[in-house]
Amino acid sequence: MWQERKTWLTRLPLPVPETLKTPLEAAEFEIGQAGVRAAFTVEKDGGESYEILPVDGGYRITGGETGILFGAYALIRGLTTGCVPAGRQKPFYPLRMLNGWDNMDGTVERGYAGRSMWFEGGRFDYEPARVRQLGRMLASCGVNVLCVNNVNVHQPAQHLTDTLLPDLARFAALLRPFGVRLMICIDFSLPMQEGLPTADPLDEQVQAWWKERAKKIWAAVPDLAGFLVKADSEHRPGPNTYGRTHAEGANMLARAVAPFGGVLIWRAFVYNCMQDWRDTKTDRPRAAYDLYKPLDGQFDGNVIVQVKYGPFDFQVREPVSPLLLGMEKTNLALELQLAQEYTGHQIDLFAMPPLWREIFDGMGKERAKAVAAVSNLGRDENWTGHPFAALNLYAFGRFGWEPDIAPETVIREWVRLSYDLAPAQEDALTELLLSSRDAYEQYTANLGLCWMVRPESHYGPSPYGYEFDRWGTYNRADRNGVGIDRTDAGTGYVSQYPEALKKLYENPETCPDKLLLFFHRLPYDFRMKDGRTLIQRLYDDHFQGCARAESMKGVLESLPLPDADKREILERIDGQIKNAREWRDITNTFFHRLSGAADEKGRKIYE
Ligand code: GCU
What we know:
It is built from 19 helices and 13 strands. The chain is of the alpha/beta class. The protein has three domains: 23-89, no CATH class; 95-403, TIM Barrel (Alpha-Beta Barrel), CATH 3.20.20.80; 442-484 and 521-595, Alpha-d-glucuronidase, C-terminal Domain, CATH 3.90.1330. 37% of the residues lie in helices and 10% in strands. The chain has helices at residues 23-33, 65-81, 128-141, 156-160, 165-175, 190-193, 204-220, 246-257, 287-292, 322-326, 353-363, 390-401, 407-418, 423-434, 436-443, 499-506, 516-519, 534-558, 563-595, and strands spanning 38-42, 50-55, 58-63, 95-99, 119-120, 123-124, 145-147, 181-186, 226-229, 263-267, 303-308, 332-337, 370-374. The longest helix is centred in the last third of the chain and has 33 residues, at 563-595. The strands form three sheets. Strands 4-7-8-9-10-11-12-13 form an eight-stranded parallel β-barrel. Residues 109-110, 151-152, 230, 269, 313, 341 line the site of alpha-D-glucopyranuronic acid (GCU).
């Protein structure tokens, strides 16, 4: 039963009572049930900030109503981890949003934890008790907005018709006591689907239509956070149809939501998805910067442009998106993906904090005004498919408050809050999670190679799976070498970076090994910094990564975890090992055939 699966909430009781109506009541309940002595001082304009002070053998939490709830969770967490936050705390990013890619038919795009937790059969359908528990999960790690529907709004009318608004309002009410507000995705062409001849953003009728729409929606859900839009991307409609810019499109919608304090989030995931693989000039990673950089400064104040962390699409490793570095006069949101689309489908272990650390450091945390992450939740009993995948949701919320947090700190926190382990076991699990991304990268796509996955599913190896397709996703491997020249002699992508980074990346001698083939096309006998040839490094990483996956099993077997978690974890590690062996063998064979080079260590390369 999901009620017994508490992930990092082990120390909190179940269920959450339905009587809780405000964040303050929720805070009182949590503190009381956790057996902590704490009093509250409510500040009228305290917002989400709080301060915890020790007093008379207990604590006093001072803050706004929602701040007190966040403070209560921080106190409970701190008493478990031995680190109660001192001084005034406030979230670094005011907007910390989980993006559900949930469709109203109950499916979840790129979902690996079962069907949607809140949609089924074309409407809202959920267990209220579970949604309350969801609110608590989100608040307890610091997330404050949930976007309920997929960015691909397949059946837009269903979301915004008047008949659905009361359901949206009821759903919002369940999350409100936890300081979590809703956001919804909208379809740019909606006015046409409802009878208007156009969706042109400069058309006055269209503008009036959206204003009216917004009025109705906010009347039902007065604290709705805003609209999220995927436009002119992967066949979604958008302003380009009318020869209008994305700034014109976004601003039109932003003006409709502004009277209600709403924000308009506009995704920058826009590229040519109908490319000819023989065209070597069009380079997909360039697309977002080429489109948006000239629009910098043209977006209204309540528009936030949401940018994926890398220039491609949530690959195992990508350089930080140059758009995050280049849009100085635009509000930006950093988009992460908890759903493990390219990172193991919540079968393979992939703890994300090390990846995010690189991204936040690479972009500079102040470049973004908000953080968003594609959800990894579903109706599965354990919430996230793999019990350990809950770590990524927890860590996302924590990074939203403290983007400087060390990966090891957040992973250890989650482990301690979720399980009762002896110190050596806690160390072993923390270390395993901390290194899981490196292992996955080694046996899948190392050195900045992307996209060597099976088409559609994105699970399992297929070195040429995306090579001759229309998506702009190539590795250009042939008998002469592998990788893409993205220097000025090649596609010029590297020039989208500030000078210092450009210099670092454009020279294969200084380019970090882990991104080498992202920026360069190199022959198989290229000498790497450590003296190995490129082909040997490709082989070595695949053997090593696979061996690392194999060695995880013993660690997992030794841990005293709750039965249900243990059963699922051991099932999944077998799946991961199978996957890792397949990647090792198929990838090594692929490169062996192309290069003709033998493995120096004489290991078996399957053919
Ligand atoms: C990826 C993913 C799609 C998704 C898209 C997006 O391409 O495979 O399922 O719709 O990203 O982020 O919009």
